[in-house]
Structures are given as structure tokens and as C-alpha cells.
Design a protein that fits this description.
Layout lengths: L3 E2 L2 E5 L2 E4 L9 E6 L5 E10 L2 E6 L12 E8 L1 E4 L7 E3 L15 E4 L10 E2 L4 E3 L3 H4 L4 E2 L6 E3 L5 H11 L1 E2 L6 E10 L1 H14 L5 E7 L4 H20 L4 E7 L1 H14 L13 H9 L3 E3 L5 E9 L8 H9 L2 E5 L1 H5 L6 E8 L15 H25 L6 H18 L9 H12 L12 H8 L4
């Protein structure tokens, strides 16, 4: 039976100091019993001899230092996992909030799982179709990859996240596919949007939602992505499912980390974030991947908003080091009405070459991808030159490239949030755009593909 302590020394905001404890360990769960019998939960943040510093999950209002009791439960935070989780909505601590019954778990798992052993990893190389041309055609997502989306305040990353969750699929296989969606620090309106979007499209049946609202405690926000990954690991490696984990918003998670660090009076690092934020983010991101000898996989799309649109801010900076590329949303494209406003030139998927080509997408994919990148980059340069010197300063071929850039944004990138394009439709659309340019300009495409696709009229 857990030992009770009446030695609460101090309560300061979300933190509480308990003296004279023994056998208590880091990250252990505890319960605080108030004088009126009400119980609140807490988690051990730090142990110093017989002193335990704990983080409260609920407000500290009403805790009396003399009469309140603390019990430590001898276990870390756990999640009861089962395949019955599919189609359900939970809060950030894994409790159902959709009005349904409690989950009867097959087992209970410590949410602080371990990053995947590099020696046990299988190389990601299977194409995941999101139905979004700017991703599938140019920055391809591969099964087992970690591909973040870098957004900014006011940009429609929520709509993009919901679209990916609804449309994503593994081609050429009938193996089960699931989505685990973790929302951290979002508003009630955003939470309602996600639930409604998944329910209306039917995607809720293959989705597990963990929702942490903006007014929930910071310590719950720290637990939410780990809850989601624990559920994903169970579905992937016990139930042999392909699992796509989408997390929004990592910036809210990092801010909660900073809040707790400041409350503990730790020495701050860059922009006030704790010096261990890189390690903390890596402990989340590195739980994604494929394992040798296992059918299932975890593919991760973390979404973050860059404060002040700054790519060098610690959160996108550290995320970029750990993950395999980034999809960047552009405020300029958003103001033009492009949906989704994906800026393809600075975006990058480091594993895209592994998931495309014959037998995976189509033999011409790599060539057309490189040519579209090159043509769009030259078209953007031509448009900038036109602004400075006027259209009369451009050559006829530069005018064609400028036209290509406009058409590319309007037809290829701008597909809306309800259009699900197959990879064949995306590649054919790319060829339609490349026909704006003379065949002699398409120097990055093999002659055999030009013969087959360029001459074929749509």
C-alpha cells in the first residue's frame, strides 16, 4: 500500500515540494488528498535526497500544507492500449472525452517509451500517398519517415493536417492503415473542427484522437505526444498496422516545456527554452520509424508554427536537425489565395528519392520532379526580374518561364483542401504544365519519357 506523507513544505504555482520521502523515483505518479476528500494528481519532477519536487496536473488552489496528504503510486504515467481505441477521442492524459465507455485495455504501457534502436531500424522506402500534389509529386512522404510541416501564425496548417489525416494511404497493399492525431494546446474551436472533419469523412473509424486544449495544464501538454506515440507503437508493432502520427502544435509543446523549466528555476537556454529541449524533442521524434522483422510502421508529421515566421527560431531549428526534411507553408502564397500554401522550393523531403520510381509511383517521377523544381525556380527569378526591369526586359523564353510559375502555383499547388489527387493525376498534371515550355528546355528529363509523355496531349 502506498505510503502517505503530510510533509508538504511549499506550493509555488504548479509546483509542490514534499520533504522526508523515501523510495520515490523520477517521473512517478502521485495523488494529493485534500481535507474534503478531493484528490488531485501530480508527477515527480525531481528528487533531491528525501525531497521530492512534484508538478501538479490540476490547480493548486485549496491545498492546505498542514492537512493535505500525498501518496506516491510507485509507477510512471501509463496508457491502457487496445485496438478499441480506433475511432475514439481522448484528452491529453488518455481519458475518453467522446461520451463513449472506458477502454478495456489489452495491456498498460509506460508512456515514456524508448527511441527506436538504430540497429533495429529498417530503411524507409515505401511511398505514402497523401493526395496532395505539392507533397506527393515534389516532397514525397515515405513510410517510417519524420517529415515536419513548418507553418506560421494565421496560416491554415490545421486544414492541411486534417486533409493529410483523411487522405493518407499506403499504395499497393491491403495492410491496415491508422492515423493517431495528437493536438496540443489548441482552442476548443480547432478541436471541434478536427473531430467534425474526421467524422464527416468517415476517417474517424481508423483514427485515434488525443486532444489537449489551451486551458489544460502544461504538464498534460507534455504527456499528450507521448500518449499518442504509445498508442501508435501498440497499433504498429503489436497489431501490424501502418500508423501515421500527426502532431499539432509542437510550438505549444515547447512553450509548455519552457513554462515548467522556468517554474523549476532552471538556467534558460536560447530564447528562454531549456537547454535539454533538443534531447526532449528527439525522445519524441525518434520513436517513429520501421523495425526489422516487423510489418507495422510509424510515420510522423509534426506540425509547428514558427514564431515571427523565423526558421532560425530554436523550435524549427532543432526539429530540422532531428527530422528528415520539412514542408514549409508560405504567407505570400496564402495571401494569393493558394490552398494549401506550400512553398515547394525551400521544402525538402530527404528520403523522397527512396519512395519514388517504377514499382512505387511511376518511372518518370524523379525526372519530372527535378524538371518542375528547376522550371519553377527559373520562373520565380523571371518574375522578380520583371518587377525590377519591366516585362519588356525579359526574353521570350523568360516570359514562358514566368507564365509557367504562375500556372504551377494556380493549378499544381492550389488544389484546395477537399481534392484527393492520385499520384498518376499529379504526374500527368506536371506534364501538362511542362508543355508550356519548349521540349528543348526540358534538359532534366530522359528522351524516352519525353517521347512517351510530352508529345501526348491531355
Amino acid at each position: 500500500m502506498p505510503r502517505e506523507y503530510r510533509t508538504i513544505q511549499e506550493v509555488s504555482g504548479p509546483l509542490m515540494l514534499v520533504r522526508g520521502v523515501s523510495g520515490v523515483t523520477y517521473d512517478e505518479l502521485g495523488e494529493i488528498e485534500l481535507e474534503n476528500g478531493e484528490t488531485r494528481r501530480c508527477k515527480v519532477l525531481e528528487i533531491d535526497g528525501g525531497n521530492a519536487l512534484v508538478q501538479l496536473f490540476e490547480p493548486s488552489t485549496g491545498i492546505n500544507l498542514d492537512t493535505s496528504k500525498v501518496r506516491f503510486l510507485g509507477r510512471p504515467m501509463e496508457l491502457g492500449v487496445s485496438s478499441d481505441m480506433l475511432g475514439r477521442v481522448f484528452d491529453g492524459l488518455g481519458r475518453p472525452i467522446d461520451g463513449g465507455p472506458e477502454i478495456l485495455p489489452d495491456e498498460r504501457r509506460d508512456i515514456n517509451g524508448l527511441p527506436m534502436n538504430p540497429a533495429a531500424r529498417a530503411y524507409p522506402e515505401e511511398f505514402i500517398e497523401t493526395g496532395i500534389s505539392a507533397i506527393d509529386g515534389l516532397n514525397t512522404l515515405v513510410r517510417g519517415q519524420k517529415l515536419p510541416i513548418f507553418s506560421a501564425s494565421g496560416l491554415p496548417h490545421s486544414q492541411l493536417a486534417a486533409q493529410i489525416a483523411r487522405q493518407a494511404k499506403v499504395r499497393g497493399t491491403d495492410e491496415p492503415f491508422a492515423v493517431v492525431f495528437a493536438a496540443m494546446g489548441i482552442t476548443f474551436e480547432e478541436a471541434h473542427f478536427f473531430q467534425q472533419s474526421f467524422t464527416e469523412s468517415g476517417a474517424i473509424d481508423r483514427t485515434v484522437l488525443f486532444v489537449n486544449l489551451a486551458n489544460d495544464p502544461a504538464v498534460e501538454r507534455i504527456a499528450t505526444p507521448r500518449m499518442a506515440l504509445t498508442a501508435a507503437e501498440y497499433l504498429a508493432f503489436e497489431k501490424n498496422m501502418h500508423v501515421l502520427v500527426i502532431m499539432t502544435d509542437i510550438t505549444n509543446y515547447a512553450d509548455a516545456l519552457r513554462e515548467i523549466s522556468a517554474a523549476r528555476k532552471e538556467v534558460p537556454g536560447r530564447r528562454g527554452y531549456p537547454g535539454y529541449m533538443y534531447t526532449d524533442l528527439a525522445s519524441i521524434y525518434e520513436r517513429a520509424g520501421r523495425q526489422k522483422g516487423r510489418k507495422g510502421s510509424i510515420t510522423m508529421i509534426p506540425i509547428l508554427t514558427m514564431p515571427e515566421d523565423d526558421k532560425t527560431h530554436p523550435i524549427p531549428d532543432l526539429t530540422g536537425y532531428i527530422t528528415e526534411g520539412q514542408i514549409i507553408l508560405s504567407r505570400e502564397l496564402y495571401q494569393k489565395g493558394i490552398q494549401p500554401p506550400i512553398d515547394v522550393l525551400p521544402s525538402l523531403s530527404r528520403l523522397k528519392d527512396k519512395g519514388i520510381g517504377e514499382g512505387k509511383t511511376r518511372a518518370d517521377h524523379a525526372n519530372t520532379m527535378n524538371q518542375l523544381f528547376a522550371a519553377y525556380a527559373r520562373g520565380k527569378n523571371a518574375k522578380e526580374l520583371m518587377i525590377i526591369l519591366g516585362e519588356a526586359a525579359l526574353t521570350d523564353i523568360d516570359k514562358l518561364y514566368a507564365k509557367f510559375a504562375d500556372e504551377f502555383e494556380e493549378k499544381y499547388v492550389n488544389q484546395g483542401y477537399n481534392t484527393d489527387r492520385s499520384i498518376e493525376e499529379t504526374l500527368d498534371l506536371g506534364w501538362d504544365l511542362l508543355r508550356i515550355l519548349p521540349r528543348t528546355e526540358l534538359k532534366r528529363i530522359k528522351e524516352e519519357f519525353l517521347d512517351e509523355y510530352y508529345e501526348k496531349k491531355s
